[in-house]
Amino acid sequence: MTDYVILAAAAFLAGMIDAVVGGGGLIQIPALFSALPNTAPATLLGTSKFAGIWGTGAAAVGFAKRVRLQWSTAVPAASAAFALSFVGAYTVTYIHPDFIRKLLPFILLAVAAYTFKKKDFGSIHAPMHVGNREKVLAILVGGGIGFYDGFFGPGTGSFLVFLFVRFFGFDFLGASAVAKVVNVACNLSALMWFGYSGHLLWQLGAVMAVCNVLGSLIGIRLALKHGTGFVRKLFLLVVSGLILKTGYDAFIG
After folding, report:
1. How many CA atoms lie within 13 A of 26 on its CB side?
2. Average pLDDT of span 53-80
3. Could you say which DSSP state residue 69 is in?
4. What value does the mean pLDDT take over residues 172-197?
């Protein structure tokens, strides 16, 4: 019972953070591994995906109702992410992601440094592309991050937010909204495999899903109330946490 309470609280906090800038897995996945050390890793990841997709879905719907969501970017990016996430999950059965594990902290450090250095980064929503150029770039970003999410995964939401700000000219709030749609596609693709292979704790996943959605709803309210400046600060905080966590996992743990 105590484990369920801890995991419910972790899912709530993960949903709140993930709704704004991504990175909820930084809280939810370690909590699952700590509370259920004898459970197969694939089952824990599947359970986390199941809980997370509901919170991310709620965030996507919430943003779509209140923010002008750039569907011309979101749809092709999400479609490519859905397809390539499955390919990434399949690839990881043949190629171990150790090289990405060691490279990831340095990539995240570069992302944090770039965002911190450019004080006005993501403060203005000024889309840079239209038409076929927008679609092609969206497919490349969605497909690349989708493959990464299926193959390895940590920081997917945060990477999406950064890329939509940097290469599409979105502000942090708009980028976060589009990232949620793409994230749902990634999670759904991976969840199809986990569900098919039986790697899901349905009862626990349902409890965590409810808490994840509740946290997500609060996260949306905070993001909309405090605006893009708040999202930028939280983004830097989450990326800093990811740097420490992935660096520890790659070189110490």
Report:
1. 25
2. 93
3. -
4. 90
State residue 122 phi and psi, 5-degree precision.
75, 15
Model pTM above 0.85? yes
Structure tokens at 115: 């965002």
Is residue 31 within 8 Å of residue 249, measured between CB atoms? no
Residue with tokens 């450019």: 118
Q: Which of 6, 5, 2, 50 is nearest to 25 (CA)?
A: 50
Return the residue matching tokens 């709530």.
12
Give pLDDT tens digits for 86-129: 888 778 767 777 788 888 899 999 999 999 988 888 888 889 98
Nearest CA-CA partner of 101 in 215, 250, 238, 231: 250
Q: Is the dihedral of CA 166, 170, 171, 172 positive or negative?
A: negative
Query: Quick one: pLDDT at residue 155?
Result: 83
Place of tokens 């809280």: 27
Rounded to whole angstroms, the Cα distance separating 207 from 51 reads 8
> Is residue 10 within a helix (H) or strand (E), and if so which, with residue range?
helix 2-21
Alpha-carbon span 180 to 22, nearest angstrom: 8
